[in-house]
Amino acid sequence: MTDVVVNSQINSQIGAPDLVAETKSAELPPLQEQRGSVRHARGAASRAVRNSPVLARPLRVAAQPGFVLHSYPYKETSLIIDVFTRQYGRIALLAKGAKRPYSQLRGVLQTFQPLTLSWSGKSELQTLTGAEWVGGMLPLEKTALLCGFYLNEIIVKLMQRDDPQPVLFDHYVATINQLAHGQPAHIVLRKFELHLLESAGVVSDLSFCSAQRCAVLPGLLYVLDPLAGVRPSGGSDDAPQVLGKTLLDMKAGDYTDPVTQLQSKLLMRALLAYHLHGAPINTRQILMDLQNL
Asked: Disulfide check for 42: which of 46, 88, 115, 258 has CB 3.0–4.6 Å away?
Protein backbone atom coordinates (compact mmCIF):
# COMPACT_ATOMS: atom_id res chain seq x y z
CA MET A 1 0.00 0.00 0.00
CA THR A 2 2.86 2.38 0.81
CA ASP A 3 4.42 1.85 -2.61
CA VAL A 4 1.13 2.75 -4.29
CA VAL A 5 0.93 6.00 -2.31
CA VAL A 6 4.56 6.80 -3.07
CA ASN A 7 4.20 6.29 -6.81
CA SER A 8 0.96 8.26 -6.94
CA GLN A 9 2.48 11.23 -5.15
CA ILE A 10 5.72 11.00 -7.12
CA ASN A 11 3.82 11.10 -10.40
CA SER A 12 1.70 14.06 -9.33
CA GLN A 13 4.48 16.18 -7.84
CA ILE A 14 7.77 15.20 -9.46
CA GLY A 15 6.06 14.24 -12.68
CA ALA A 16 4.74 17.74 -13.28
CA PRO A 17 6.08 19.02 -16.63
CA ASP A 18 7.20 22.36 -15.16
CA LEU A 19 9.58 20.53 -12.83
CA VAL A 20 11.92 19.35 -15.56
CA ALA A 21 10.72 20.76 -18.87
CA GLU A 22 13.66 23.01 -19.47
CA THR A 23 12.83 23.04 -23.17
CA LYS A 24 9.94 25.33 -22.24
CA SER A 25 11.19 27.37 -19.30
CA ALA A 26 13.57 27.14 -16.37
CA GLU A 27 12.27 27.38 -12.82
CA LEU A 28 15.64 28.25 -11.36
CA PRO A 29 18.45 30.57 -12.46
CA PRO A 30 21.05 28.67 -14.51
CA LEU A 31 23.50 26.91 -12.25
CA GLN A 32 26.39 28.20 -14.35
CA GLU A 33 25.61 31.68 -12.96
CA GLN A 34 26.33 30.34 -9.49
CA ARG A 35 29.41 28.60 -10.84
CA GLY A 36 30.80 31.92 -12.07
CA SER A 37 30.97 33.46 -8.59
CA VAL A 38 32.25 30.29 -6.95
CA ARG A 39 34.96 29.63 -9.47
CA HIS A 40 36.01 33.28 -9.56
CA ALA A 41 36.99 32.88 -5.93
CA ARG A 42 38.97 29.75 -6.72
CA GLY A 43 41.31 31.24 -9.34
CA ALA A 44 42.24 30.89 -12.97
CA ALA A 45 42.25 27.10 -13.08
CA SER A 46 38.62 26.90 -12.00
CA ARG A 47 37.64 29.69 -14.38
CA ALA A 48 39.07 27.63 -17.20
CA VAL A 49 36.69 24.82 -16.23
CA ARG A 50 33.79 27.23 -16.18
CA ASN A 51 34.61 28.50 -19.66
CA SER A 52 35.05 25.06 -21.24
CA PRO A 53 32.64 24.57 -24.19
CA VAL A 54 29.53 22.43 -23.93
CA LEU A 55 29.81 19.17 -25.83
CA ALA A 56 28.63 19.61 -29.42
CA ARG A 57 25.57 17.54 -30.25
CA PRO A 58 26.25 14.77 -32.79
CA LEU A 59 23.80 13.96 -35.55
CA ARG A 60 23.39 10.34 -34.43
CA VAL A 61 24.29 8.42 -31.28
CA ALA A 62 23.98 4.65 -30.95
CA ALA A 63 23.89 2.30 -27.95
CA GLN A 64 24.76 4.84 -25.27
CA PRO A 65 24.47 3.64 -21.64
CA GLY A 66 21.86 5.65 -19.80
CA PHE A 67 19.00 5.88 -17.32
CA VAL A 68 15.60 7.55 -17.48
CA LEU A 69 15.43 10.28 -14.85
CA HIS A 70 11.92 11.45 -15.59
CA SER A 71 9.29 11.40 -18.33
CA TYR A 72 6.11 13.29 -19.10
CA PRO A 73 3.45 13.11 -21.82
CA TYR A 74 3.91 14.85 -25.14
CA LYS A 75 0.80 15.15 -27.30
CA GLU A 76 -1.41 12.05 -27.38
CA THR A 77 0.97 9.15 -27.93
CA SER A 78 4.51 10.33 -27.16
CA LEU A 79 6.75 11.08 -24.21
CA ILE A 80 9.57 13.49 -23.52
CA ILE A 81 12.14 11.68 -21.42
CA ASP A 82 14.91 13.27 -19.39
CA VAL A 83 17.83 10.84 -19.46
CA PHE A 84 21.27 10.67 -17.85
CA THR A 85 23.87 9.18 -20.20
CA ARG A 86 27.49 8.39 -19.51
CA GLN A 87 29.15 10.21 -22.41
CA TYR A 88 26.64 12.96 -23.15
CA GLY A 89 25.33 13.85 -19.71
CA ARG A 90 21.73 14.81 -19.18
CA ILE A 91 19.67 15.22 -22.35
CA ALA A 92 16.02 15.45 -23.43
CA LEU A 93 14.67 12.93 -25.94
CA LEU A 94 11.35 12.69 -27.75
CA ALA A 95 10.05 9.12 -27.58
CA LYS A 96 7.53 9.03 -30.42
CA GLY A 97 4.60 6.69 -29.91
CA ALA A 98 5.89 5.46 -26.53
CA LYS A 99 2.41 5.76 -24.98
CA ARG A 100 0.76 3.51 -27.55
CA PRO A 101 -0.48 0.23 -26.01
CA TYR A 102 1.71 -1.99 -28.20
CA SER A 103 4.80 0.22 -28.35
CA GLN A 104 8.03 -1.65 -27.67
CA LEU A 105 9.23 1.41 -25.76
CA ARG A 106 6.33 1.34 -23.31
CA GLY A 107 7.83 -1.25 -20.98
CA VAL A 108 11.45 -0.27 -21.53
CA LEU A 109 11.57 3.39 -20.56
CA GLN A 110 11.47 2.80 -16.81
CA THR A 111 13.44 4.62 -14.13
CA PHE A 112 16.37 2.94 -12.32
CA GLN A 113 16.86 0.36 -15.06
CA PRO A 114 20.09 0.36 -17.13
CA LEU A 115 19.39 0.97 -20.80
CA THR A 116 21.23 1.42 -24.06
CA LEU A 117 19.79 4.43 -25.85
CA SER A 118 20.09 5.61 -29.43
CA TRP A 119 18.96 8.99 -30.76
CA SER A 120 19.36 11.46 -33.58
CA GLY A 121 19.05 15.20 -34.15
CA LYS A 122 21.00 18.34 -33.29
CA SER A 123 18.34 20.44 -31.55
CA GLU A 124 17.91 20.59 -27.78
CA LEU A 125 15.05 18.07 -28.03
CA GLN A 126 16.39 15.10 -29.97
CA THR A 127 14.52 12.03 -31.18
CA LEU A 128 14.88 8.64 -29.53
CA THR A 129 15.51 5.98 -32.19
CA GLY A 130 16.05 2.94 -29.98
CA ALA A 131 16.09 1.75 -26.38
CA GLU A 132 17.04 -1.64 -24.99
CA TRP A 133 16.94 -2.95 -21.46
CA VAL A 134 20.35 -4.12 -20.25
CA GLY A 135 19.39 -5.71 -16.94
CA GLY A 136 21.71 -6.82 -14.20
CA MET A 137 20.37 -4.55 -11.44
CA LEU A 138 17.86 -5.28 -8.71
CA PRO A 139 14.69 -3.14 -8.70
CA LEU A 140 14.28 -0.48 -6.04
CA GLU A 141 11.49 -1.09 -3.55
CA LYS A 142 9.81 0.76 -0.68
CA THR A 143 12.10 3.35 0.94
CA ALA A 144 14.88 2.63 -1.56
CA LEU A 145 12.48 3.53 -4.38
CA LEU A 146 11.72 6.89 -2.83
CA CYS A 147 15.45 7.50 -2.34
CA GLY A 148 15.94 6.76 -6.03
CA PHE A 149 13.35 9.37 -6.98
CA TYR A 150 15.16 11.79 -4.67
CA LEU A 151 18.40 11.18 -6.56
CA ASN A 152 16.69 11.78 -9.89
CA GLU A 153 15.06 14.97 -8.67
CA ILE A 154 18.25 16.60 -7.43
CA ILE A 155 20.07 15.59 -10.63
CA VAL A 156 17.35 17.20 -12.75
CA LYS A 157 17.39 20.36 -10.64
CA LEU A 158 21.15 20.78 -10.28
CA MET A 159 22.72 19.32 -13.42
CA GLN A 160 22.63 21.32 -16.63
CA ARG A 161 21.94 19.63 -19.94
CA ASP A 162 24.65 18.51 -22.37
CA ASP A 163 27.31 18.47 -19.66
CA PRO A 164 29.12 15.11 -19.78
CA GLN A 165 29.76 13.73 -16.29
CA PRO A 166 31.01 10.14 -16.69
CA VAL A 167 32.36 9.96 -13.12
CA LEU A 168 29.06 11.17 -11.69
CA PHE A 169 27.26 8.65 -13.91
CA ASP A 170 29.34 5.85 -12.40
CA HIS A 171 28.53 7.15 -8.91
CA TYR A 172 24.84 7.13 -9.83
CA VAL A 173 25.00 3.49 -10.95
CA ALA A 174 26.83 2.53 -7.76
CA THR A 175 24.32 4.44 -5.62
CA ILE A 176 21.32 2.72 -7.23
CA ASN A 177 22.99 -0.65 -6.66
CA GLN A 178 23.74 0.17 -3.02
CA LEU A 179 20.15 1.24 -2.38
CA ALA A 180 18.82 -1.90 -4.06
CA HIS A 181 21.02 -4.07 -1.84
CA GLY A 182 19.78 -2.43 1.34
CA GLN A 183 22.81 -0.36 2.32
CA PRO A 184 22.02 2.49 4.78
CA ALA A 185 20.16 5.07 2.75
CA HIS A 186 21.28 8.09 4.80
CA ILE A 187 24.94 7.28 4.15
CA VAL A 188 24.46 6.37 0.49
CA LEU A 189 22.56 9.62 -0.16
CA ARG A 190 25.12 11.82 1.62
CA LYS A 191 27.89 10.43 -0.56
CA PHE A 192 25.95 11.04 -3.77
CA GLU A 193 24.86 14.54 -2.76
CA LEU A 194 28.50 15.50 -2.29
CA HIS A 195 29.53 13.94 -5.61
CA LEU A 196 26.74 15.86 -7.37
CA LEU A 197 27.68 19.23 -5.85
CA GLU A 198 31.35 18.63 -6.64
CA SER A 199 30.48 17.73 -10.24
CA ALA A 200 28.36 20.88 -10.51
CA GLY A 201 31.40 22.90 -9.44
CA VAL A 202 29.79 24.44 -6.38
CA VAL A 203 31.71 22.65 -3.62
CA SER A 204 35.44 23.02 -3.15
CA ASP A 205 37.98 20.75 -1.43
CA LEU A 206 36.58 19.88 2.00
CA SER A 207 40.04 19.23 3.42
CA PHE A 208 41.29 22.75 2.67
CA CYS A 209 40.40 25.94 4.56
CA SER A 210 40.10 28.58 1.85
CA ALA A 211 40.08 31.51 4.27
CA GLN A 212 43.32 30.55 6.01
CA ARG A 213 44.96 28.78 3.08
CA CYS A 214 45.74 25.71 5.16
CA ALA A 215 44.57 22.17 5.83
CA VAL A 216 41.38 21.61 7.82
CA LEU A 217 42.07 20.53 11.43
CA PRO A 218 39.87 17.77 12.89
CA GLY A 219 39.17 19.45 16.24
CA LEU A 220 38.14 22.91 14.99
CA LEU A 221 34.70 24.13 13.95
CA TYR A 222 34.18 25.25 10.36
CA VAL A 223 31.52 26.63 8.04
CA LEU A 224 31.26 25.61 4.40
CA ASP A 225 30.43 28.88 2.69
CA PRO A 226 28.59 28.20 -0.61
CA LEU A 227 30.61 30.91 -2.34
CA ALA A 228 33.94 31.08 -0.54
CA GLY A 229 34.51 27.48 0.52
CA VAL A 230 35.59 26.23 3.94
CA ARG A 231 36.33 28.84 6.60
CA PRO A 232 36.64 28.85 10.41
CA SER A 233 33.38 29.25 12.28
CA GLY A 234 32.72 32.72 13.63
CA GLY A 235 30.65 31.40 16.51
CA SER A 236 27.50 33.27 15.53
CA ASP A 237 27.12 31.84 12.02
CA ASP A 238 23.62 30.96 10.86
CA ALA A 239 25.07 28.32 8.54
CA PRO A 240 25.69 24.83 9.94
CA GLN A 241 28.91 24.60 11.93
CA VAL A 242 30.72 21.29 11.54
CA LEU A 243 33.85 19.79 12.96
CA GLY A 244 36.90 19.55 10.79
CA LYS A 245 36.71 15.81 11.35
CA THR A 246 33.29 15.77 9.70
CA LEU A 247 34.65 17.49 6.60
CA LEU A 248 37.61 15.12 6.45
CA ASP A 249 35.33 12.12 6.94
CA MET A 250 33.06 13.31 4.13
CA LYS A 251 36.00 13.76 1.79
CA ALA A 252 37.17 10.23 2.63
CA GLY A 253 33.65 8.77 2.30
CA ASP A 254 33.72 7.60 5.92
CA TYR A 255 30.35 8.04 7.64
CA THR A 256 30.79 5.58 10.51
CA ASP A 257 30.90 8.34 13.14
CA PRO A 258 27.35 9.30 14.29
CA VAL A 259 28.48 12.93 14.64
CA THR A 260 29.62 12.90 11.01
CA GLN A 261 26.27 11.45 9.97
CA LEU A 262 24.30 14.18 11.74
CA GLN A 263 26.51 17.12 10.76
CA SER A 264 26.82 16.02 7.13
CA LYS A 265 23.02 15.74 6.88
CA LEU A 266 22.55 19.31 8.12
CA LEU A 267 25.36 20.57 5.92
CA MET A 268 24.07 18.94 2.74
CA ARG A 269 20.53 20.11 3.45
CA ALA A 270 21.75 23.71 3.77
CA LEU A 271 23.90 23.55 0.63
CA LEU A 272 21.13 22.05 -1.48
CA ALA A 273 18.66 24.67 -0.24
CA TYR A 274 21.11 27.42 -1.15
CA HIS A 275 21.83 26.18 -4.66
CA LEU A 276 18.15 25.49 -5.31
CA HIS A 277 17.31 29.01 -4.10
CA GLY A 278 14.95 27.58 -1.52
CA ALA A 279 12.88 25.57 -4.01
CA PRO A 280 11.48 22.48 -2.27
CA ILE A 281 12.67 18.96 -2.96
CA ASN A 282 9.35 17.22 -3.46
CA THR A 283 10.50 13.69 -2.62
CA ARG A 284 11.73 14.84 0.77
CA GLN A 285 8.29 16.27 1.53
CA ILE A 286 6.61 13.07 0.33
CA LEU A 287 8.69 11.03 2.76
CA MET A 288 7.68 13.34 5.60
CA ASP A 289 4.03 13.02 4.59
CA LEU A 290 4.22 9.23 4.51
CA GLN A 291 5.75 9.17 7.97
CA ASN A 292 2.70 11.07 9.23
CA LEU A 293 0.13 8.67 7.72
From this structure: 46
